[in-house]
């Protein structure tokens, strides 16, 4: 078995990591109120792979032999469990289908190339033998970027790049590193940190996603305010195509026509396979603080976030949870287990009392976290500017205690989703970006859209949101929604998800700020980039891949699984 | 005649604006030493258009009628002078050919559409009638982006967008403006400034270039450190194609697959015609200062510029001239004409004396300008950080006097080129970007490459450079070169230019940081973005424009006029 780290086959992340609610006294009551269920103790520690009913590999001996000749027998895998690990990403519907034994088209083989030359040979073989290749990073996609098309009749090969996991060189003067595409976040940071550097790119999926995956799906990390989206971070790359390797040298900026770099970023495997990248790296910041602030209302908090960016404070991140997410966040606090924590909890109670005395509606208050990095005096100066801005918007500074908590918990959320699934509850996310002037409307309309779906389904549903990723002209709004599902889960999910996505577009937001398109969001591409824009992009894919050998059906022309289940009840969108 | 501002037909900019050397005592001696000629008084105030021998329009009555029906008779122009204004950009070879009556393929008509609908009708007519359309902004291209292919036999129509010159709306909350593509820099800034806003984009061509032109050629303004390259500034756009309008809504960031926005930016008309843009606009800075510093050496200055960026000072620009350009800059100072200026000049002499006492080789010293914007205390703080950095690199702070001078002179340089042409001297520019670690080598190698060409031509030649446009990972190096030309000017120019361009690429730089590709730089595309990258881009152009109706021969597959003239003496590069 190849020496590559995989996620568990039946859910997010690693075995034996669980979300626990028993030590969080406010959590069960919130869930009861939010989605109407009584939480039960967790039953599921793991799922026996023997329960999986896996469609057999359809690979021919001849194709198998060809793959083995390219990557070696050890790195050509037909094993059922690994094929299931590679059959999909980790969207909530992927996991439900997996748990319910509703596999669609499962890859016939998984290969683990050990060099760019091997990737080149695989890509050539794909064209010669009419195979379908799907590049696989950490498998964390929640936009269905990794599934073969259900109707695919040709041999499907998942190309796991996990062996290409080295930081190859660091240009310490220019702050550039050349890194192989298959490296997982923690492995990469460890290699960089060892030499005093960091990429500064920390998406929620960080522990289980790769640099190449971030590139191919237009990822953005929680610290993008300082370190940039992945498109800013990437300065050059190698991408393997049937005709050869597209080599984009590391350049701070260039005027060489339409940007090939920006074509490969977000291409989700449709233009070829990215094998290595030149990326901007930064010296690890001398000093770092995350400060929490509490705002009396969402609107004041949102205004403060905008003004912080406008004031050119250059924070590392600035995010604010709306009232619902604030409530949720507080409900996931652990009960105090030590004297120190009891004192802290009493401090918190005292704070709430202060707020009530000030006339706050504590059910409307919103928590914000702002991260500052730099030299100590620089951090102090930035904090002061931010303190002035938030004060004018009525906020109280909570200090660095909750901020430190935020920093520790940031990658844990997806495990909660798996826990909820066992409880019969879907918890999922949808995110967008929009100009500052439209954020309030987007937020309001998405709430209404989700509620309309919940009402239609006769369910008690939950939605909450935060704003993060500030830009000159706008920001990201990130929504989490939840509801109890039934046997009719496909239709239930499709209704809620499509209503939310449509609300994004109708209010001037984009179909996704940083989760990519995959098959999940492709129904909105025409509305987002216009029909003529889709036509031009389709032309690019056709000219780049006339035989549809490279992850076909992603970004554009995807098999529809959302509107199709809705049938005539759908929102009437053109596919 | 359409109410649109044009540049003069025989050179840069406006009639009756001239470079004058008689009041600059150090200038003539420098020119003598640099290129070996004795300056004569300017003879040429203008050039009579009657001396131009203009190829006639080849448009058919039928095509002419069709154009008139779309844009109206007033806005369909066959006038010879306007056809010559639109036949080329303003590269030095364009101007030489124009002055020498060596016109190649001149557009058969110039049209001035007044709306996006008219542009749409033109684009459709181009496909139906097999016309060639070349979008025309301010006509300032120095990369041959505007010439028809010399061998073009079809009807060629230059599409001047000058009537589309309005700021249509400003979203004051999001800092976004929707602006028509044909607006000239000063006209746009006037409209924005009137409402308290600025784009902050000031390329050298600012007075004679348009927003759409900046988009189509991947422009960068001198204040890009703060305001971004044009690709950062543009957040959405309308681009007209035969099948309809690609509409990209204004978004701070998005995850919608390969970036269509970044495909149109730099597309030089090959994917369609850009009609309007959503751009980031900024409140006019409260306070602005440009401070000059003098460094003992180029290397120390370059290091300081890098450290300023690394320290996250967030300057508006930071540029440093090398020793040659510093000398040139000082040589264009006017003789003092008032007591105040005499005192200032004496102050300067005193400063030189200080430097000599410190042991500086004054022929090696390099002048830098750093621009600070913001609230007064913010500017003061930034200045202090920069003062600390430059001091460690041995620099003296010259203060804001020379800085103010720089701010005033910034758009005047191209007139110098026209003046030199009359003196028989080519003065031209070539610029690149490269990682910080490579800048010293690029600089050194370009000097050697230019010298090798001068030697080969048996000429006294001149080259000088500055660094500007800082990024995390590198910066732009901008070179100006000059030599006396003969009747063999095509070969002389080609030799010097190709040697410089090749030195860029060989040392890890790009073929251009912000002048676009056009036909001039296309021979280096394969070396810059790799042969397979070119192949992919070629596929995009073919799928977008199978009939080659939209500015064919730009960016890729351009008619070769550099290596062809060099023949076997060329650098042996693949075309």
Inertia-based shape of chain A = globular
- Name the CATH architecture of the domain at 413-569 in chain A: 2-Layer Sandwich
Low-confidence stretches of chain A: 571-575
User: In angstroms, what is the radius of gyration of chain A?
Assistant: 24 Å
- Share of β-strand residues of chain A: 15-25%
Widest sheet, order of strands of chain A: 15-12-14-13-17-18-16
Structural class by helix and strand composition of chain A: alpha+beta
Helix fraction of chain A, binned, reads: 25-40%
Largest sheet of chain A: 7 strands, antiparallel
Count of helix runs of chain A = 21
Subunit arrangement of the protein: homodimer
CATH topology of the domain at 413-569 in chain A: GMP Synthetase, Chain A, domain 3
């Amino acid at each position: 078995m190849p020496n590559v780290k995989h996620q568990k086959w039946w859910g997010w992340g690693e075995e034996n990591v669980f979300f626990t609610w028993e030590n969080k006294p406010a959590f069960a009551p919130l869930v009861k109120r939010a989605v109407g269920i009584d939480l039960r103790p967790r039953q599921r520690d793991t799922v026996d792979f023997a329960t999986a009913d896996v469609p057999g590999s359809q690979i021919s001996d001849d194709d198998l032999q060809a793959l083995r000749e390219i990557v070696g027998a050890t790195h050509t895998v037909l094993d059922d469990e690994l094929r299931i690990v590679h059959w999909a990403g980790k969207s909530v519907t992927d996991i439900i289908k997996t748990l319910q034994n509703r596999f669609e088209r499962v890859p016939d083989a998984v290969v683990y190339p050990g060099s760019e030359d091997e990737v080149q040979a695989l890509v050539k073989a794909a064209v010669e033998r009419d195979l379908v290749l799907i590049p696989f990073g950490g498998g964390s996609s929640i936009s269905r970027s990794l599934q073969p098309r259900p109707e695919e009749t040709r041999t499907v090969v998942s190309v796991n790049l996990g062996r290409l996991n080295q930081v190859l060189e660091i240009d310490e003067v220019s702050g550039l590193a050349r890194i192989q595409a298959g490296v997982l976040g923690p492995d990469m940071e460890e290699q960089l940190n060892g030499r005093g550097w960091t990429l500064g790119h920390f998406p929620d999926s960080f522990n289980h996603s790769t640099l190449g995956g971030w590139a191919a799906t237009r990822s953005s990390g929680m610290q993008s305010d300082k370190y940039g989206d992945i498109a800013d971070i990437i300065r050059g790359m190698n991408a393997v195509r049937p005709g050869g390797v597209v080599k984009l040298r590391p350049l701070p900026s260039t005027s060489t026509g339409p940007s090939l770099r920006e074509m490969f970023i977000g291409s989700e495997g449709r233009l070829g396979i990215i094998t290595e990248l030149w990326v901007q790296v930064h010296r690890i910041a001398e000093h770092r603080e995350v400060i929490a602030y509490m705002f009396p209302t969402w609107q004041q908090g949102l205004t403060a976030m905008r003004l912080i960016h406008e004031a050119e404070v250059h924070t590392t991140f600035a995010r604010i949870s709306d009232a619902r997410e604030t409530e949720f966040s507080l409900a996931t606090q652990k009960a105090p287990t030590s004297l120190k924590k009891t004192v802290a909890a009493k401090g918190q109670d005292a704070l709430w009392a202060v707020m009530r005395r000030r006339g706050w509606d504590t059910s409307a208050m919103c928590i914000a976290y702002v991260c500052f990095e730099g030299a100590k005096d620089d951090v102090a100066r930035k904090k002061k500017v931010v303190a002035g801005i938030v004060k004018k918007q009525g906020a109280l500074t909570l200090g660095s205690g909750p901020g430190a908590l935020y920093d520790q918990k940031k990658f844990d959320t997806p495990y909660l989703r798996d826990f909820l699934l066992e409880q019969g509850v879907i918890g999922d996310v949808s995110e967008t970006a929009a100009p500052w002037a439209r954020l309030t409307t987007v937020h309001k309309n998405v709430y209404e859209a989700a509620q309309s779906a919940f009402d239609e389904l006769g369910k008690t549903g939950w939605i909450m949101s935060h704003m993060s990723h500030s830009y000159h002209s706008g920001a990201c709004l990130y929504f989490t929604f939840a509801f109890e599902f039934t046997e009719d889960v496909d239709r239930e999910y499709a209704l809620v998800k499509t209503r939310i996505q449509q609300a994004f577009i109708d209010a001037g937001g984009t179909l996704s700020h940083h989760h990519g398109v995959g098959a999940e969001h492709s129904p909105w591409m025409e509305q987002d980039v216009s029909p003529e824009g889709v036509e031009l992009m389709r032309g690019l894919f056709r000219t780049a891949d006339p035989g549809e050998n490279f992850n076909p059906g992603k970004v554009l022309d995807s098999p529809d699984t959302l509107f199709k289940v809705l049938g005539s009840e759908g929102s009437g969108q053109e596919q």
